[in-house]
Amino acid sequence: MDDPRALFDLTGKTACITGASSGLGRRAALALAVAGANVIGVARRKTELLTLVDEIGEQAGFVAFDITNRNDLSKLRTAVSAPFGPPDILIHAAGINTRQPADEVTPEGWDVTLNLNLTAPFFLSQTFAPAMKAKSWGRIVTFASLQTTRAFPGGIAYGASKAGIAQLTRAMAEAWSPHGITANAIGPGFFPTELTQPVFDDPDRAARNAARTCVGRNGELTDIDGPLLFLCSDASAYTTGQVLMVDGGYTAK
After folding, report:
1. Among the listed residues 187, 116, 206, 117, the one whose alpha carbon sits nearest the alpha carbon of residue 145
2. b (16+ CB within 10 A) / e for 190-202
3. Is residue 235's pLDDT more than 70?
């Protein structure tokens, strides 16, 4: 029997991670680098990306870029592919939550949310899919949310974008999995990131969220490592079009 641990080895693979300057995107870059992958972080904040590259070392590179700029995605593809070749793994971790109540949602707030959370992941995936097809191997991982299936106050635009991520994930799987490209999503519970800082700034609210899980606590960044490594490796070769909730059982109750 082959050693099943080899299924999780990413040596020789290259991963492109959006939103890598902070939060779950940054954690993803660190975790995949430890698993052997070369990583390219993409975000708008160059200083934070430089810090990430310094921490990882020669396995890492970065591109400072606004991924909502669809007109220059070919330039982004060239820049991302320059250090290690076209990426085998694409992780969409960039996101925004304007937290505008339904009666106060502005066209600008709606557009920036949908463009970054839903539109950019598709067109970026479309940009990198041909190189994955050519190798008959690729992994696309998007980030869903508790709000993929649940409505939260002030989350109408964010929730719409994350519900769309679930269907986008299924549709990309239908389109590209015959070519060896899997498409899956992770649905995080409450993790301490910049995006959820308003939640953790309220200790009572954070405690209530923890109590609603099955395990009795909110997420820690290390909790994302295993599910992410599974979905980015050969271990998930027969898993596609799925939303894996990593929420401590929040959605199970």
Report:
1. 187
2. bbebebbeebeee
3. yes
Q: Three-class SS of residue 43? A: strand
The domains of the chain, with CATH numbers, are 4-189+221-240 (3.40.50.720)
Which pLDDT score, from 0 to 100, does residue 244 have?
98
Active site residue 250: no
Per-residue pLDDT reduced to its tens digit, 164-175: 999 999 999 999
CA distance 229 to 133: 21
Q: Which of 62, 65, 84, 158 is catalytic?
A: 158
Cross-strand bridge partners of residue 139: 89, 182
User: Which of 54, 57, 33, 52 is CA-nearest to residue 41?
Assistant: 52
Query: What does the alpha-carbon distance between residue 116 and residue 118 come to, in Å, rounded to a whole number?
Result: 6
128-143: pLDDT as tens digits: 999 999 999 999 999 9
Quote the pLDDT of residue 4.
87
Nearest residue to 81 via CA among 16, 35, 133: 16
Beta strands at 243-246 and 138-143: parallel, antiparallel or unpaired = unpaired
Cα gap 166→112, rounded to integer Å: 19
DSSP codes, 159-218: HHHHHHHHHHHHHHHHHHGGGTEEEEEEEE-S--SSTTHHHHTSHHHHHHHHHTSSSSS-
What pLDDT, on the 0 to 100 scale, is given for residue 1? Answer: 67
Give the integer Cα–Cα distance in Å for 137 and 104: 44
How confident is the model over 88-107, as a mean pLDDT? 96
